[in-house]
Design a protein that fits this description.
The strands form two sheets. Strands 2-3-5-7-8 form a five-stranded mixed beta sheet. Strands 1-4-6 form a three-stranded parallel beta sheet. The chain has one domain (7-89): Ribosomal Protein L15, Chain: K, domain 2. The protein has 90 residues and is an alpha/beta fold. The model has no long low-confidence stretch (mean pLDDT 88). A hairpin with a 7-residue loop joins β7 and β8. It has helices at residues 10-22, 64-72, and strands at 7-9, 26-29, 32-36, 44-46, 55-59, 61-62, 76-79, 87-89. The chain starts with 6 loop residues before the first strand and ends with a strand. It is built from two helices and eight strands.
């Protein structure tokens, strides 16, 4: 049985980054936005759409396509799976 929980696409993340910063649910670090999706209840980040802003996201699972697009935009994805060591994709 697959774990259930909310998923988010890159286009959705891209659309909400400024709102998250304004609500203090994400932080600015220079030009990069730091977002802990896991703390916001998101289980998996999917690669549909695009992102043009550099972000550092922490999430339980992340598709390879999402990791690539985040990296191409100058960001990074920190992927943590339950029971596994954290994996950082830069």
């Amino acid at each position: 049985m697959r774990p259930r929980g909310p998923t988010l696409n890159l286009w959705q993340l891209s659309a909400m980054t400024e709102k998250l910063v304004n609500e203090k649910k994400a932080q600015l670090a220079g030009e990069k936005i730091i977002i802990d999706l896991k703390a916001l209840g998101v289980r998996k980040l999917l690669g549909s759409g695009s992102i043009s802003r550099a972000v550092q996201v922490t999430v339980g699972e992340c598709s390879e396509n999402a990791v690539k697009k985040i990296k191409d935009a100058g960001g990074e994805a920190i992927v943590t799976k339950p029971g596994a060591q954290p994996v950082t994709a830069k």
